[in-house]
Amino acid sequence: MGKWHYGVVLDAGSSGTRVHVYRWLNHAAARKAAGSEDLKSLPEIKTKPAWTKKIHPGVSTFADSPEDVGPHHLQELLDHAREIVPNDAIKDTPIFLLATAGMRLLPDFQRNVLLDQICSYASANSDFLLPDCGVHIQVIPGVTEGLYGWVATNYLMGSFDEPENHDHGKGHHTYGFLDMGGASAQIAFAPNATESDKHANDLTLLRLRNIDGSPQEHRVFVTSWLEFGVHEARRRYLEALQDASVVGAVSELPDPCLPAGLQTTVDGKALPSDGETGISLVGTGKFDECLRQTYPLLDKDAPCADEPCLLHGVHVPAIDFDVNHFVGISEYWHTTHDVFGMGHKDRSYDFKTYQERVQSFCSQDWDDIEHGILNHQWGKKLDQESASEICFKASWLINVLHDGIGVPRVALDDPSLAHNGTKELLTQGKIKGYIDPFQAVNKIDSTEVSWTLGKMVLYASSQVPVEIEEALPVGFGSNVAGVPTDFQYPSVGLLPSPEELHTEKWHDTLFDGSSSRRVPGFLLFLFIVIMAMFFLCGRSRRLRVYHKINNLFHRGGPSHPNHPKKRKLFGGKLPFFGQRSPSYERVLEDGALEFDLGGPDSVRSSSDAGRSSDTDSGSFLPPKRTTSWGSGNTPSLKFGLDNSSTGAIGLGISGGSGVTAMDRTGLVVRTESRDHLTPIALGPTTNGRRSRAGSPARSYPHRSPAVTSLSHE
What we know:
With 713 residues, the protein is α/β, with parallel strands linked by helices. It is globular and about 100 Å long.
């Protein structure tokens, strides 16, 4: 292995797939190059703009033709990655395809078939490290996507390695993260100390590892709203428009979110030339009305089972905007900058200035906007389709940010602040980073902010060797001490063996003095052992033990017939010890052989189904001794999918007693008997999943990972 380690992540979003290539020094070179202070920092990951490539459409569009996703989509991305990673490093370079909201919206069957096809194609057409498709190729839940984004943001901002330079007050130094794509939206932040204590059970424990092997721990709240991305929100908005109209009574629906004079089909396309449009949308260009009609989409009135809630009845701890400063990416950046030119990446979001520019643009007639597009008035990237969507996106973003999440409207409440006050913030921003409640960014230190970077930070950090055996692993899970049972490991190679997991769980539960369940757990353990021995020893042994114990109560007692007999232990009526027939019991007491009556019409138990008969007609044979262990109890991996927005989070590698399986969303599923798994008849499968036998077992060398641009190298 050379000086550099590489990693490839494919972000399979709803509108397209983007490949990212990253690299970092191996742990030996990183420690040698680091100073004493740098040893307490995370591994340094590097990338270049040219190492990223995006193609359209998204993989979810291949749901009806999964056989095309490889040659018509993946191949171009795999070729791009191969051009960057050196040939001698490809076999040791992990590749991940992590799909997000677009794939979450597919039916289970289509989603699983598509993932299997991606796995098959990537395995057969690349030599990248792909030890387990169930881990490396999966649909991640929104909470995992949000957590990765939070890691990437704080990694680039330097708040992990230099917390003293990002003091927001009250001992708080990390930044909140906001992301909005086409189908979903995420929020992730570390609450203040008061809220962290109050909502400790709602937080996620995140553990990283520095170059010197020392750990970093953070506790983060993260949640996701499916169908709250801009495209899904637009779909829900148009459905509401149609529901509010009289069906069949109108052929044109006025849309205040479209510029005046623009007429489109309901799905936003240009009107067909033949004039057969059905119901069409007619823009009125009234942005205030657009804001009013998009507000109900926040679903602020939904029942809240666990106060407080923000959108759609989803619980979120109270946000202290004095210390929680948020960074928004994706649509938060594009909608505030692509058309309206809100300034550079290090300038603050000014609500007053932004809304004024949106009002000015969206109140124009469509003819004037088309003329401005031709003259590149808003830059060369703006086309007619983007211009027709931007007013709805701006209204949705404003509602989500300020009425949904509650970000203060900077400069709105103070009329004296009639200008965009970003210049005054730049000097302070260079020292402490972003200090306003919200700022939209695209790049930090010339590196694009992407949740894929957060995934690679975790992976590279997990490759740093530990100095002591007791060191806790890198990953994330429930906010409890030690290694939670739902802990998510960044790599399949880091998953402990089942024996280690089993021993570790029992040891911690039974013998750890800090565990409140130590004594009850130990008694439960003894009870289980005794019951297992009881059922495994067989009826004859149970009878002998029973009679020995029973004789203890008769020992030394009178045997004269005139003396009264002592009562048998438990009245001799325990069903697991006694027999149905007194005569049969006496035969056993006298030491006769055990036997079973059998014949051609004997009914065999289901456990003997398919076996040859153990008895012949009219014969007496000793009964077979059976146990509760069947031949079909061999553990097997089961991969499934849970689209809930709470679940665990990450690669789905999770540990627990007797649990080694993981699903494609990063959630742990219970290992079951192969007899209970129904295969999917789609090519070569094992228990409904594609066989991993073709992937050789690979050793994971210990490796070392703030992403910096290589533009100066």
